[in-house]
Amino acid sequence: MALRIDDMDKKILGELQRDAAQSLDEIAKRVGSSKTPVWNRIRKLKEAGVIRQQTVLLDAEALGFDACFFVLIRTSEHEADWQAKFLKALRERPEVLEAHRLAGDIDYILKVQVQNARAYDSFYQALISEVKVHNVTALLSMEEIKSTSMLPL
Q1: 130 and 83 assigned to the same domain
Q2: What is the pTM of this model?
C-alpha cells in the first residue's frame, strides 16, 4: 500500500529539502507541529522510500571542479550486453553526476563535472576505450543559471 502524502508531510519534506541539517525542533516549529509527530512522519517517509537519503551539497568550483560538460551520446548498439557494460562504466566514474536514457535522436545524456578540459578528455578517452559509441558530443556549460534538487511540492 502506497503512503499517502498530506499537506503536513509536504511541509516537512519542503523543510528537509531546504536544509536537512535542521533539528527536529526547528522543523516542528517551522511546520507548526511538535517534535514527536514530525519525527514519526519523517520515519514513515523514510520507510516508504519517499526520503531516499540525506546528504550534503558541495560547491564544485570551491573544490576545483570548474568544468561542467553535458555529453550527448548516440549508439548503434542496443543489445543488453552493451547496455550493461555501458551502465557499469558510467556508475564507476564519479565525475558522472547524472546519466539519462532519452527518447529521440540522442540515446543518452550525461552531466560530467571535472577540473578542466584536459580532465574531460581523460574521461572521454577512458569511456570510449571501454564501450563502443557511435557519436559523442560534449557541450561545455558556460554558466550555471539554476541548479536545485528540490522538488516542487
Answers
A1: yes
A2: 0.88
